Amino acid sequence: MKKKLHSLLFSATLLMGVAAHAQVRVEIAGVSGTQIPVAVAAFADESVAPDQISSIIRADLERSGVFKVIDARQAISDSASVDLGAFKASGADALVVGSVSRMPDGRFQVRYKLMDTVKQTQLSQLSDAVGARNTRLEGHRIADDIYEKLTGVRGIFSTRISYVKVNPGRGNHSYELVVADADGENEQIAAYGRESIFSPSWSPDGTKVAYVSLEKQKPIVYVQNLVTGQRQILSNEKGNNSAPAWSPDGTRLLLSLSKTGNTQIFIVNVDGSGLRRLTNGADIDTEGQFSGDGQTVYFVSNRSGGAQIYKMSVNGGQPTRVTFNGRENISPRISPDGKTLAWISQRDGVYCLYAMDLASGQEQRLAEGATEPSFSPNGKYIMYANKGGGRASLAVVSVDGRVKQRLSTQAGNIKEPSWGPFMK
């Protein structure tokens, strides 16, 4: 009899861990309505570092769909005198330059500048000393700075994502809860087992992931601390324990529990204390999600005869129906600013990703064959699971539907995505 494996392998930083077996490949399709032309030069002496930082920056900006990236075709140091007019004449509105040098202690000094070629001014600059394993992260941070300075919106390139990877085997599968960079690189295994793992959910501070595991032959909710490596059982009530979702302040979670018979929404403190039932219907209520301000809970209920999305006060009260179109509406997710609802709707026999402006009620269809949506922390993108060609993969779409990405791997299926928060 094969012994079950369950290894919680995170070390003291989020950038250390056990590498997963295969990295994720990103395919990009579509661009935003108006792209910002940016020239990115190779950083002076960047070959001394483990990662080519300028290449990471270019890939991030291109993946966003917001920028038209122009290759400067030369290495330009942040200390060099640059003819900005020449770059403006080539069609670039901004120029990225920088340098990398090895420090005596083995770290790398990374410097960068962002120049406005139209106004002939400097928009931003950074100078950081980073270890060898953090040079990729530094490239993402610079790309974040460029995104924010040129769009006014915080960048999400240095954030992390989690997902479940299902590895096929003879007679059985293995399941990995994986954490990776937002571009799918730098995969690390947070948990591993022979039984299903699903519904990962990030804490607001990015240090923990709650998830459900069947390792004890029933659904139990665990909280994994990604910094200390410690794991705790959050909920092991009678029946099913599922669908963990954090409050915006990180002090409580919503759970879907069947301890009373039919599945209902409960609230519990992060240490497992103070369990309180929120919904009290005779029907199934599940998949609870907090609003951005933590005062409203969105959830799925069949109280109208089919699965639809409702909302109610976190303090209780009468629920209000939110969705009316489509045979089945499930998996509600609220954007960080609380203005947009993303969910999965079954229409004409197809499960599609929709987004709704909550103020106007206007809906937009974003993708077909979608499940399990998750907003980026800046609210501009939605990651979801997609099954095409018999293999489960992840995809990303901008909230306006213009930019689409597909993340796939050569080995196994990847599903159950959850986009992590901004890291402080």
From TrEMBL:
SUPFAM superfamilies according to UniProt: TolB, N-terminal domain, Tricorn protease N-terminal domain
Keyword set, alphabetical order: Cell cycle, Cell division, Periplasm, Signal
Signal peptide: 1-22
Function noted in UniProt: Part of the Tol-Pal system, which plays a role in outer membrane invagination during cell division and is important for maintaining outer membrane integrity.
Database matches in HAMAP family: TolB (MF_00671)
Subunit text: The Tol-Pal system is composed of five core proteins: the inner membrane proteins TolA, TolQ and TolR, the periplasmic protein TolB and the outer membrane protein Pal. They form a network linking the inner and outer membranes and the peptidoglycan layer.
PANTHER family: PROTEIN TOLB, PROTEIN TOLB HOMOLOG
Protein name: Tol-Pal system protein TolB
Origin species: Massilia aerilata
Gene designation per UniProt: tolB
